[in-house]
Amino acid sequence: MLAYFLKVNVAIALFYAFYRLFFYKDTFFGWRRTAMLCFFAISAAVPLLNIQTWVTAQEPMVAMADLYASVVLPEFTFTPEVTTTDWKSIILEYAGIAYWVIVALLVTRFMVQLAGIIRLACRCRKVQIGDSTIHLLPRADGPFSFFHWIFIHPASHTEEEFNEILTHEQTHARQWHSIDVIISELACTLCWFNPFAWLMKREIRTNLEYMADARVLENGYDSKTYQYHLLGLSHHKAAATIYNSFNVLPLKKRIKMMNKKRTREIGRTKYLMFLPLAALLMIISNIEAVARTTKQIATEVIEAVDSKIEQPIRNAQEPQATPQPEQDKKVMTYKGKVVDKDGKPLKGVQILSDMKYMRERVITESDGSFEFQTVAEAPILFLYKDGGKEKAISFRGKDLSAAERENWIITYPDKWEDVIQSDTGTPDNPIFEVVEHMPEFADGGMSGLMKYISENLQYPEEAMKQGMQGRVTVQFVVEKDGSISNARLIRSVEPLLDKEAIRVISSMPKWKPGTQRGQAVRVKYTVPVVFRLSEDKTPVTNNIGEVVSVARATTESGEPIFEVVDVMPEFPGGMGALMEFLAKNIKYPVEAQKTGTQGRVTIQFVVSKDGDIIAPKILRGIDPLLDAEAIRMTTIMPKWKPGMQRGQAVNVKYTIPVMFRLGPGNTDPNIQKVINTPRQ
To answer: 46, 35, 34: which is closest to 10 by C-alpha?
Structure first.
């Protein structure tokens, strides 16, 4: 709300400056009236317009937005509240009270003035002159009008003055000038702290008098005589704020405008200039949020994708509802030899694993020996070039005993698999990494590729039985005719999963080929595929450029629970509102503060098709107290906007990571938003 009012008042200030610069001196009073009313309307409406929806609906923003929503969730960090005085909150609270007190006073003033006019209209004697009802004032006050009520003291004016005044006030009445006065009065009531609102109100009142004065002169009254009459009435009581007065000040401006040469008709075109200004205000009003959102999305996409491509995944396959055993995360040392079936050592076997722990490239020595370190949970891949072919075999360290890790003998080529060699092309027919126009899946682009792979990917039954899961990265070449060739593994998990990923990629239909300088060329392309175990083996898409084969759970009633849908569920008001809700409602357990317990709790729940939060569970817990608080928070959430699949509301899983963090000395109450937390 504060941001809205600030934007409204900034817009009023800009529009007033625009008015003074372009419209202040012309004589198109009717156009000026319309423009100034539009200024108030646009100032109030522009902050409510949100162009982010339109921006994110465009390509390629949709891809980044989808990736952001499904892969890079924000992490909410909470620190315990302390009893220190929050002067900022106190100042804002009292400022808010002061604002509404003054608003109340101005509203009271407005109502008193309105009641005074109504009471005066009831007391005055009325006469009909033409189509106008004239209220005869009981004393010599200045003439004025309010809507169709015209108030005049006839005894104070000559017949000519009376006719001039009547024409003037009839113009106010017939053109409904009181509406303009009330709108400007209400604007000043709500924006009383903004001097430009009051200046705009003054300009509106003055312009209305210009219009009435011009009408008097158009009816044939002498200009100089009329001006002298205005001067003669200047000693009368000034008009109140909410009605149109014949002798409203400043008279000097009115007299100068009456004597001013009429502006040429071509000058009307400048009134169209406020339309680009309104569009500019809309952009400015949204640019901070759009820029922030776009930058955040782009940064997170780049970091998320780069980290996944450049580093082997560290158990990115951790979808289990229970945390990984602590021993699986320990760094293990592996020693052994690679030999052939005759027992002869193999030199030059390349060993790949989690590069966070394997700081150096590991290749077997002349005696076939090797030694390296990695975490037990990480996959380990052995690659060996035998003539023109490349073979590979993969393991998981956690499946090896301590004795095996210290004296590991691997026999070649027992259970080793063929790996398709990378093709670098020829000078006459090169393979490009990046081209002007990258290849594209023919049937629907990236979303079509995701759909195709998810529909054709099959989770191997044996892999499911053995609990195999992880991310396989496959690289292939899109040929000049769009066909797929040279599919090869970039990152391996298990042979069964590797084979399935290669099979699906190799069986893809023809793509739209990449082009360089207008010519179709051969281009490398990489697709990561995640195999993730659940209750079933239904493959679904997860995010841009990555396909996840997971199961679809069901509710107690048998209805499916989706992990990713066309339109993901949304907290009322969006992610920002969710963060605000959590910040206001989650409480750091006192006992956890005393014991210094902190860490990240990852909670998952289901947003039902009715928007209710059901089945909350802890995916990664830290402490029962913190876990319980995270669960409690979900029970008080309002209804969400449900997820949609093919136009129908469905049940959708949602995951939120929450960081409980104690500040220095347990006195830091700040709430931080930490990004780049992958979805579990």
So the answer is: 46
pTM of the model: 0.41
The one-letter amino acid code at 2 reads L
Q: Is 1 exposed, middle or buried (0-12, 13-18, 19+ CB in 10 A)?
A: exposed
Instruction: Tell me the percentage of the chain whose pLDDT exceeds 70.
Output: 75
- Residue 253, token pair as written in the block: 């401006």
What average pLDDT does the segment 295-316 reach? 41
When pLDDT is cut at 50, 70 and 90, the band that residue 60 belongs to is very low
- Residue 184: other Cβ atoms inside 10 A: 24
**349 closest CA partner among 336, 359, 331, 333:** 336
C-alpha span between 479 and 511 (Å, rounded): 9
Give the residue, 309 or 422, on which the prediction is more confident. Answer: 422
Helix (H, G, I), strand (E, B) or coil at 99: helix
β-bridge pairing 514-516 and 519-531: antiparallel
What integer is the mean pLDDT of 621-631?
83
CATH topology of domain 52-84+312-319+551-680: TolA/TonB C-terminal domain (3.30.2420)
Domain ranges of the chain: 52-84+312-319+551-680, 89-263, 326-416, 431-549
How many Cα atoms are found within 13 Å in the side-chain-facing hemisphere of 196? 18
Report the distance separating Cα 451 and Cα 670, nearest Å. 42
- Contact call for residues 144 and 246 (beta carbons, < 8 A): yes
Fold exhibited by the domain 326-416: Immunoglobulin-like (2.60.40)
Instruction: Return d(Cα 507, Cα 496) in angstroms, integer.
Output: 17
Q: Which two tokens stand for residue 614?
A: 């059901």
Contact, 539 vs 547, CB < 8 A? yes
CATH topology of 52-84+312-319+551-680 equal to that of 431-549?
Answer: yes
Using alpha carbons, select from 366, 376, 422, 367 the residue that is nearest to residue 400.
376
Question: pLDDT tens, 159-192?
Answer: 888 888 888 888 888 888 889 889 989 999 999 9
What is d(CA 602, CA 475) in angstroms, rounded to the nearest whole number? 33
CATH superfamily of 431-549: TonB (3.30.2420.10)
**Tell me, what DSSP letter sits at residue 263?**
P
**How far apart are alpha carbons 435 and 480 in whole angstroms?**
13
Structure tokens at 518: 């207008």
* Structure tokens given for 259: 């004597």
Q: What is the 3-state secondary structure (H, E, C) of 46-71?
A: HHHCCCHHHHHCCCCHHHHHHHHHHC
What's the confidence (pLDDT) of residue 351? 87
Segment 238-274, tens digit of pLDDT: 444 565 655 545 677 777 777 777 777 777 777 777 6
Beta partners for 651?
561
